Amino acid sequence: MKRTLFAVLTAVLLISLGACGRQSQKKADGEITIAFANLSDTFEFCQSVRRGFEEECAKRGWKIVTMDNKLDGTVSIANANNVVSLGVDLFVEFNPDSTVGEAIMNIMNAAGIPTIAIDIPLPGAPYFGANNFKAGEVGGVTLAEIGMKEFGADIDSLVIISRPDGGELIIERQDGIIAGVKTLYPGLPDNKIVILDGRGDVLPSQEAFTSFLSANPGARRILVGAVNDQCAQGALAAAEIANRQDHILIISQGCDTSALDNLYLHGKNAWRGSVSYAPENYGKYAMPTVELMLKKESFPMFTYVEHFTVTIDNVNQIYPR
After folding, report:
1. What's the pTM value of the predicted model, to 2 decimals?
2. Which residues neighbour 216 within 8 Å (Cβ) at sequence distance 6 or greater?
3. Can you tell me the distance from the alpha carbon of 230 to that of 259, in angstroms, rounded to the nearest whole number?
4. For a designed S-S bond to 35, which of 8, 83, 229, 307 qualifies (C-beta 3.0 to 4.6 A apart)?
């Protein structure tokens, strides 16, 4: 599906690669090898990111070796050690656990392998991906606008379904959602803001939101900000099983096929939209930084994607089937 509104915003700060990695080691036949470790090959968003890098490497005649971090920091470290044994020219790391970032970079720096971080920062590595606070804020504003239209100026709860072990970046996304909602609900008290641990996936999110709904049977105006589409799927399932869809409005993050299919096929249900990151374009727009790193030239330390909310009202204009 062609996503025409995707753009990147590149920070002004540039640095030299000289202190950050070894010189690109071309193979005897001139081939360059890139290693890509995915956050999780089970998530459609991550599958799209991986395919984008594979396609861009194929265009350049580069070899790409892919591996799956499986949402596990221990696996990420094992994969990083494997990358070193492969003797690659550059490492693209989509690491699920911010607490192991320093350990991963220690491995890469000791081996002299230049590394770029996708969506979750690594110490000293250039970053490509989401502007998490902004993405959250964009979704929060949309959630508040729909809430005002359908629930009015008073709501019972703002529920954030999150993944706390995602680290600082997930917290920024949470904070952005709250800030966005508060642009239209400035007096929303802290005791009406609830953060649930959905562990970033469908079933844990469904379980967490089911428990919330059971504990709050009288709540009729609930805004839900999901930090990814999997959390939104879980929240929607919980709402449907509890027969409380009319009490809930959901905006998620990521805009993968699950979100689009919901917007196309089901129309006006509780899940009203998702903030787009256009993951299939990550490889395309990260590749200029990768090329500069391989050439040992100055490169941007931060490159962000543009975020916008896709809703039942604009999905066919933005992402026509």
Report:
1. 0.75
2. 156, 157, 222
3. 9
4. 83
Over residues 213-227, the pLDDT tens digits come to 999 999 999 999 999
pLDDT tens digits, 231-256: 999 999 999 999 999 999 999 999 98
In whole angstroms, how far apart are CA 240 and each of 206, 248, 261, 274?
10, 10, 17, 19
Q: Would you list the domain boundaries of the chain?
A: 8-130+278-305, 132-276
Fold of 8-130+278-305: Rossmann fold (3.40.50)
- Cα 164 to Cα 65, 69, 73, 252: the distances in Å are 30, 18, 14, 16
- Please, are residues 124 and 114 in contact by the beta-carbon 8 Å criterion? no
Q: Beta strands 127-129 and 90-93: pairing type?
A: unpaired
* Backbone φ, ψ for residue 138 (5° rounding): -60, -45
Q: 23: pLDDT confidence band, cut at 50, 70 and 90?
A: very low
Exposed/middle/buried for residue 51 (C-beta within 10 Å: 0-12, 13-18, 19+): middle
The structural architecture, per CATH, of the domain 132-276 is 3-Layer(aba) Sandwich (3.40)
Distance of CA 290 to the CA centre of its chain: 20
